[in-house]
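Chapter summary example: a protein plus glutathione.
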Amino acid sequence: MQAGKPILYSYFRSSCSWRVRIALALKGIDHEMITINLIKDGGQQFSKEFQALNPMKQVPVLKIDGITIGQSLAIIEYLEETRPTPRLLPQDPKKRASVRMISDLIASGIQPVQNLSILEQVGQEKQLTWAQNVITSGFTALEQILQSTAGRCCVGDEVSMADLCLVPQVANAERFKVDLTAYPTISRINKTLLSLEAFQVSHPCRQPDTPAELRA
Ligand SMILES: N[C@@H](CCC(=O)N[C@@H](CS)C(=O)NCC(=O)O)C(=O)O
């Protein structure tokens, strides 16, 4: 049976969706997009149809090659294994470990603790400080790690999965008004990556579901 075009379920502002959008853009994978509004109508991620796709009720989800994958890093690793060019995990096992360490630091240590559903539980009044504290503590560790791994990118000079995690997390930091002056390496790498086409076309300000006032 012929599988159709891959379908990405995405929300413009979702940093995890942005990771996958960058991977698809870098690897030149033609796909369709279905947007899931995480806010509207109490959140479209809670609909029966979407829960059937991802019981975690989160984006991104990618339907590809006849399977459905949730979890952005699992999606990126699948794309890497099935469509290896350009490479997003270095060949050298030590560099590969660094890429995974940085990706996990962001994907397990920062983003989930400032995700929408957590902030809702923290409450309107405290959520800005909460998010700022989470990101500051994660970025302090990351800045230190990058001192020994970074070149032009998070690990050496080649764009990797770690960079796909970094840029969307910096966007979250900016949205939560985190002062980035204490993180010169993070800021430098972010600036370099944002000049690349794959990061620009996948940017939250340029998605089909980006509201008019946030388009750029
Ligand atoms: N570990 C997951 C996290 C996915 C996640 O947190 N997605 C957020 C958007 S970035 C979401 O769908 N949140 C919906 C909610 O909190 O209700 C991944 O890497 O894909």
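Key point: The beta strands are 7-10, 32-35, 61-64, 67-70.
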